[in-house]
Amino acid sequence: MTSTAGVAPPLDVPGTGTGPTPGAPPEVPPETGRRRGKTGYLLLLPGALWLVLFFVVPFYSLVATSLYDPAGSDFRGYEMTWAVGNYVDALQEYWRPMLRSLWYGALATLFCLVLGYVLAYAIAFKAGRWKNLMLVLVVAPFFTSFLVRTLSWKLILADDGWVVNTLQFLQVLGEDGRLLATPVAVVAGLTYNFLPFMVLPLYASLDKIDPRLVEASSDLYAHPAVGFFKVTWPLSLPGVVSGTLLTFIPASGDYINAELLGSPNQRMVGGVIQSLFTDANDYPAAAALSMVLMVLIVVMVLLYVRRAGTEELL
Amino acid sequence: MSRAGRWVREHLVLVLGLLVLAYTFVPIAIVVLMSFNAPASRNVYAFDGFTLDNWANPCADPGMCDALARSVQIGLLSTLLATVLGTLAAFALVRHDFAGRSASNLLVFLPMAAPEIVLGSSLLALFVATGFSGQLGFWTIFVAHVMFCLSFVVVAVRARLAGMDDHLEQAAMDLYATPVQTFRRVTFPLVFPGILGAALLSFSLSFDDFIITNLNAGTTTTFPMYVWGVAQRGVPMQVNVIGTVMFLVSVAIVVVGEVGNRRRLAART
Question: What is the ipTM of this complex?
């Protein structure tokens, strides 16, 4: 229950009335009036069945496909040969895009954390009566199509655009330096596109902090910076953890930014999996790569959550 | 120090926050601007001149409007089913106690935590294994969208239900309302804003999805897939008209919702 509660608030759009209003008690003790009996099962059954059929069973299918005989095809059919070699082959060929995905995902998450913390902090503590408006403005840009937004970054970062020209003028970029088709563009795109996934959970936990605690620290002669690192930051950690997870997982699986803003040298593993599936029809290799990505993400997430010391989140 | 300088110093965090917020709107400004662009050629993506043509003929490329209509259809259908199934499940999880409740919560949570590429490739693996690889299209996209929208609906409705005071329902029962009456006259109206919000979220998730859709679409094209396709061979400016309209519609929905909220709050006091 706590695991989802940590993730739930960011997902409902503040101001649309989908969730408890900020400041309201976040969770009502769940033990009041919960009924036993068969009705619960009946209500749950259709949804649960859908998830089992189209989420759990497919996952089993993915594991099975990753172990099929790599020589199989749509015409010859697929044979289960427990071909663990698929994993070795896939990793040998595609370890670069795999590591790159995790690296770009981590970088984008870090930048999101910095930008998102500033924004969430400003909304929670400095916005006053404009709080709700600012929250709406945080999500508003992201209702425009993901792909259209990413295309407009392509225009902004274009070779003769003002961003590149300015950077060339400032000697940050060389004469023929460019941003498109570089890791910078891809990470910038990822950072931009996943920012609200960071801001909303950060806001949710910053908003719960009692400002009197920070006041108390300054009454006790703590420097504002000390007050921040000893009071505000530790209390916002649940938001930091769920924000980084909500950003890192989709960012490292994304390939739209890499393909639209990058070059083949910035290819991310999602793009490889996609083209192995739909262009090369090499299902076993694609499934094996998909599995590896999933396992690596889960391992990184578990290590991270353990380090952050907030195990109740998962 | 000038007064402006002092104001900035005192409000440094707010100013930085507003800068970050402004940055999130830069691409939107570009989308709006480009919707009025008269491009010199299809291959150059730059602002060349002002025109209203793109707004006057949004369907100049019929392929785009077909894709758009398909996305709307899939969005509406999958939102309808996901909202019904998700709302029922949310009621079960908040209001009922049964063995396997925490396992069910986990089942709902996992699809939101898994990367899209893994969800998409799992489904495709299933479709291939069951011999549906030739029938990929509208209905396989629908199945996929219901699957990933469902969890978000459950979470949104569950949050609404969990934050709801059940004293009103108890009062209705005390006044001899039948369970059906209580549900129709008290519970449902109270949960409805949550369900509506969940449905809107679900529609926008479905409408905007690319990664899962692209794997399970076969030759069927949705709007995001259309944009993906033209990104390689020259983007018609009408794409930006659609982007602008999406932005305006969602802002309008949020504003209407907010005004409704204010009215309800004002009526209560």
Answer: 0.89
